[in-house]
């Protein structure tokens, strides 16, 4: 593994550890609270982080993912806890999401080590960013995780947690 590969995987571990620390002391009830004026909960944000990294790390290079297809409908862009009651699949509990958040970086590294610069099916984000390699997808995933970690911290503050 190159030094550059090691660096991005180390960053993924570090950022994910910070996210997990924001979630570890919450009760399931606290994870499901939605601050006034917002549409998602802390649990939704945790699941969204799992879903997006999974899609970025595994879908583009056409690698298998162990996550059920329901993760997309439950946690992808535009979804919200309001739609969870209309689904047949159970929504993962906060503790389940925490476990997925903890194990996912190692699984991503195992799948992508030595493959970060391989060309994959190009993807243009809703903001116009073109992604063409797993490294580019992971770089954007790090930025994305930072945004949602900030949202989780904001929700905690607004909810007095």
Automatic annotation (TrEMBL):
Residues 11-152 form the DinB-like domain. Pfam families: DinB_2 (PF12867). Coiled coil: none annotated. It comes from the Bacteria. InterPro entries: DinB-like (IPR024775), DinB/YfiT-like (IPR034660). This is DinB-like domain-containing protein. The lineage of its organism: Bacteria, Bacillati, Bacillota, Bacilli, Bacillales.
